[in-house]
Task: inverse folding
């Protein structure tokens, strides 16, 4: 096996990034794979989102506080197939699982890693727009998305963006 050594000046370290001061609704950290997005995400003092525990005996919609909560959260992430809401998690497609997971995780003070990595770009853009509307309408704050896809920035409309490739806000 051959190992690639990356010079330190190309690495992003926790000390190279400071969370912008003040409150914000949405932050975005974007850059190429291996550029330090996840490392920065873990250093922010926010909760790293985790896939919820889903019962494969219940419909995904039944895992929410109410039918209205499920509907609002699913709409927020572009998971708009009512018949799929009634299926157990195990039979959902990869894209549907991504959206169901995201719907369950949306709350203040979280970091969402690998944002839109498993969905096609049209779904990514649509979901980004819906998510930012949900976050702002619910008054959520300090939600940070990590992704290697620059195309979501226009639709997610973050309050700030940090590019790990250029090391620029």
Result:
């Amino acid at each position: 096996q051959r190992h690639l050594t990356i010079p330190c000046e190309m690495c992003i370290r926790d000390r190279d990034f400071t969370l912008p001061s003040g409150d914000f609704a949405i932050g975005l950290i974007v850059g190429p794979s291996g550029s330090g997005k996840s490392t920065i995400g873990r250093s922010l003092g926010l909760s790293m989102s985790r896939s919820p525990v889903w019962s494969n005996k219940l419909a995904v919609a039944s895992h929410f506080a109410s039918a209205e909560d499920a509907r609002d959260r699913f709409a927020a992430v572009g998971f708009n197939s009512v018949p799929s809401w009634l299926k157990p998690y195990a039979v959902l497609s990869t894209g549907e699982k991504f959206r169901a997971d995201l719907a369950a995780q949306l709350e203040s003070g979280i970091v969402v890693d690998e944002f839109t990595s498993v969905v096609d770009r049209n779904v990514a853009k649509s979901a980004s727009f819906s998510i930012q509307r949900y976050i702002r309408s619910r008054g959520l704050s300090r939600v940070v998305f990590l992704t290697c896809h620059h195309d979501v920035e226009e639709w997610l409309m973050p309050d700030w963006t940090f590019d790990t490739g250029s090391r620029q806000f």
